[in-house]
Write a structure and sequence with these properties.
The strands form 2 sheets. A 7-stranded mixed beta sheet has the order 5-4-3-6-7-8-9, covered by helices on one side. The protein is built from 7 helices and 9 strands, in the order H-H-E-H-E-H-E-H-E-H-E-E-H-E-E-E. About 30% of the residues lie in helices and about 25% in strands. The chain has about 230 residues and is an alpha/beta fold.
Length: about 230
């Protein structure tokens, strides 16, 4: 049986994404254009548009524990909407995974650097992004909890997974007016959080919506930034 990817993509956008308050027409158009199935491992391609995390390496259980998975489509879409990358901006993503979110960001931003600590996923993301023909995104193998101080400041920093707290070292790499988007907290309730760097007031914080996501590696340290 063959999969009708275009119909499945349409259903994902209309039934999952729109109903989760992702209404930015540019984001919706982006989701229609970028082929999510091309970033999903072949063994799980039939799940490309299902409302679930998709394992990238190993079994579902192993992927949930290790964090080596794609986030649910509605979570990815809403985080991109919250980040609101613009054509002149530089973006840092932590947690490249398969490269799908980096591909979404690269279509909106001037330049994207995405960090991945797992060497298998670094190779996967590079291959997927190269096949997608994106020349303004770079995958680096690195511990994303430290960011990239030498390459900042960044207009957008997106943490593609959950964290216990947001490290101050990442906030320090935000440009003035820059936004950091992260899923912060502990199970069973985490909050999608947008932190914006202001000129005089330091940082402003908005907690937009509730969700649960697998933990990014090396992000379970004691608090360094309190809301």
């Amino acid at each position: 049986m063959t999969t009708d990817y275009e119909q499945a993509r349409h259903n994902m956008i209309e039934q999952q994404i729109r109903t989760w308050e992702v209404l930015d027409p540019q984001v919706l158009e982006l989701l229609a254009q970028v082929r999510r199935e091309d970033f999903v491992p072949p063994a799980h391609r039939a799940l490309s548009f299902v409302d679930m995390e998709i394992p990238l390496v190993g079994s579902v259980e192993e992927a949930m524990v290790s964090g080596r998975c794609m986030l649910a489509p509605r979570v990815e879409a809403r985080m991109v909407q919250d980040a609101d990358p613009r054509p002149f901006e530089k973006v840092l993503e932590v947690g490249a995974g398969s490269g799908y979110v980096a591909a979404l960001l690269a279509h909106r931003a001037q330049r994207v650097i995405t960090l991945e600590i797992d060497p298998d996923l670094v190779e996967m993301a590079r291959d997927n992004l190269q096949r997608a023909g994106l020349s303004n995104v770079e995958v680096r193998q690195a511990d994303g909890s430290r960011g990239l101080p030498g390459d900042g400041p960044f207009d957008v920093i997106m943490l593609s997974g959950s964290v216990a707290e947001v490290p101050q070292v990442l906030l320090d790499q935000l440009a003035e007016g820059g936004r950091l988007v992260a899923i912060v907290g502990e199970e069973p309730m985490m909050r999608a959080t947008v932190i914006t760097r202001r000129r005089e007031a330091g940082f402003s914080t908005a907690q937009r919506w509730d969700t649960v996501a697998p933990r990014l590696r090396h992000f379970a340290a004691p608090p360094r930034f309190r809301f």
